[in-house]
Amino acid sequence: MPDAPKPTSPSAPVADSTPSAPAALPNAPMAYENQAFLNSPDGRMVRIMSEYQEPLARFRRERIQDTVVFFGSARFIGMDEAHQQLKLLDNTGSTQLAPEVEQPEFDSPAGDGTVNALKHMRAEAALEMAAYYEDARRLAHMMTEWSMKLPGRRHRFVITSGGGPGIMEAANRGAWEAGGKTIGLNIKLPFEQRPNPYITPALNFNFHYFFMRKYWFVYLAKALVVFPGGFGTLDEMFEVLTLDQTNKLAKPITVVIYGSKYWKDVINLQLLADKGAISVRDLDLFKFADTPEEAFKILTEGLIANHLDAEDLAAMGQGQVSSEPESDAQSLLGPDIAKTLS
Q1: Measured between alpha carbons, how far is 97 from 178 in angstroms, rounded to an integer?
Q2: Which of 66, 161, 227, 268 is least surrounded, with the fewest CB atoms within 10 Å of its CB?
Q3: From its phi and psi, is residue 142 left (phi > 0), alpha (psi between -120 and 50) or beta?
Q4: Which helix (H) or strand (E) element contains residue 125?
């Protein structure tokens, strides 16, 4: 017969395997405050759009309608009448000086006239660049005094530069000394740099993307003045001339190439036309000037012909642009983009 069932003993208590509740989580960052995302490749489009929208908002707030852009060398500092103090920078716009062997020297420390060839050549270039600095400063002053007399709700033909030292500083300085607003469009580079002190603080910009900086150079510009410079100046000048040549600009632009001897030594634009690389009529896209007065005449004639009407000219000197900030998009567009509570 089958075995009788064994008596069962009370089962041992089973251990609770449910994990304890985790610690409370902090609130996740808002997407537009998430620095890891914003600085990542996935955030590139947001960064690009920011370099479009944020300058646009500031230009609107500061009542900037259009600009006159100055390009030129950013490798020399201290370029004023005390030209004996001129120093050469290690790179365009940097705060680091070039090696001592490359610095301009107007005489040897011993006073015996034994200056090496490079230092002597740099000294001659320094004096030349000092003259261009003063010319850019004077021209920017003249243009600002003239444009400040124009009536309207916004500032016209505001002097704009790349925001660094050298010719860029001279342009901002001349406008500042005339009492006008002036714009600096700096670019972040992999060495220490700083904006020049003459830029209007609310119009001091720093870009990561070269193409967005170039966009703002060209988009608002009604005129361009190209002072002697290097690769960057050549790049910016030819980019604008190409846009004008191919009718990609939505408005006429007056281009002044300043310092005919310097530029004709550097590039032979006539040869391009002679060889058929450009059309002969492309030489009409720019004009040379060698004095601030000559450049001022070319610029004002071009701006008057292309961007001002008789009413503007008749009202010159009658009233000033308001110093109050312009309304932002929220105020202008109203309930379509009504502000939320949070």
Answers
A1: 30
A2: 268
A3: alpha
A4: helix 117-147
Distance CA 53, CA 61 (A): 12
Distant-in-sequence, close-in-space partners of 325: CB < 8 Å, separation ≥ 6: 61, 62, 63
Q: What percent of the chain has pLDDT over 70?
A: 76
Hey, is 253 helix, strand or coil? Answer: coil
* Beta strand spans in 65-220 (E): 67-71, 76-77, 87-88, 158-161, 182-187, 204-207
Q: Which residue has the tokens 């009718």?
A: 247
Kindly state the tokens that stand for 290. 């060698």
Q: Which two tokens stand for residue 313?
A: 């000219």
The amino acid present at 112, given as its one-letter code, is D
- Checking if the pLDDT of 85 tops 80, the result is no
Question: Which neighbouring-strand residues pair with 89?
Answer: 97
Average pLDDT over residues 211-239: 96
Predicted confidence (pLDDT) per residue in 206-220, tens digit: 999 999 999 999 999
Q: Contact, 166 vs 129, CB < 8 A?
A: yes
Enumerate the H helices of the chain as residue ranges: 35-38, 44-61, 117-147, 167-177, 210-219, 231-245, 260-266, 269-274, 292-307, 310-314, 329-333
Express each pLDDT in 109-121 by its tens digit.
444 444 466 666 6
CATH classification code of 64-83+130-316: 3.40.50.450
